Amino acid sequence: MPTPHALPDLALVSAMLRNAARAEILPRAQSPDPRLKADGTWVTDADLAMQTRVQHELAALWPHIPLLGEEMTAEAQQQLMAKEAASPDGPGLWVLDPLDGTSNFSAGLPVFGPSLAWIQGGRVRLGVVVDVMRDEVFSAALSAGAFLNGQPLRVPATQVPLSKTIACIDFKRLSAPLATQLAMRPPYSSQRSIGSVALDWCWVAAGRFHLYLHGSQGLWDYAAGSLILSEAGGHGQTLAGESVFNNSLEKRSAVCAGDAGLFAQWTQWLAASDAPPR
């Protein structure tokens, strides 16, 4: 039996999530068997098995910290979040997306993985995201830095002008006016969308994208990744200029960049656009 710990340890959480992904996600990648949930999103046996395993292992190590998982009912999620928000001195809450990028996983696109964050006292304290197919573990602890496979991760310095940047843009969740402007008169050089919000944040932190824009993402999608980007020296806010994390289940937009200068130019361009913020 594992020995319970008082406080979550980043290295222990990272190893646990990586090993769970290897055991529950990788063996199912060749036959994902996707089906639609009531809300129109996809779920697979890998999502469900991963959530069950992680919940069990976290409970063995930190039995006093409850878990909020994407595959739980909306009612259960709301109850857990309300309890956490009302107890700032409590043990906090795990927030898990057992398989971010389920559509990619279902289609055989090799960009997906779990995302796990520990929230306590209205702050994201720990975050871990695993890129299963690349065997990359992105992690961060509040005020202690970000890491990639255990090595310090900092956003690379860049002298790239805004007009030559690569942007990660999720068009379908943006307002029609903003999406049209970006498609017709983009301020960047080229655009990608990889289909995993958690890895979007991490790839900005690693310098693989210069800019990021997403119109609506859930807490389990962004909690870990937003901490990783921040601790790596990156920058992010909502389209309305607010902090992305607000200790709630409210869907949030995200505007990000690794470089401070590019972040200023990117947010200024968006603010000057005709599209209203979300």
TrEMBL record:
Q: Which GO terms describe its molecular function?
A: inositol monophosphate 1-phosphatase activity; metal ion binding
Gene3D superfamilies the record matches: 3.40.190.80, Fructose-1,6-Bisphosphatase, subunit A, domain 1 (3.30.540.10)
Q: What InterPro entries does the record tag this protein with?
A: Inositol_monoP_metal-BS, Inositol_monophosphatase-like, Inositol_monophosphatase_CS
Q: Which SUPFAM superfamilies match?
A: Carbohydrate phosphatase
Which keywords appear in this protein's UniProt record, sorted alphabetically?
A: Hydrolase, Magnesium, Metal-binding
Q: Which GO terms describe its biological process?
A: inositol metabolic process; phosphatidylinositol phosphate biosynthetic process; signal transduction
Query: One Pfam family this chain carries?
Result: Inositol_P
- Binding of Mg(2+) occurs at 70, 97, 99-100, 221
Query: Any idea what this protein is called?
Result: Inositol monophosphatase
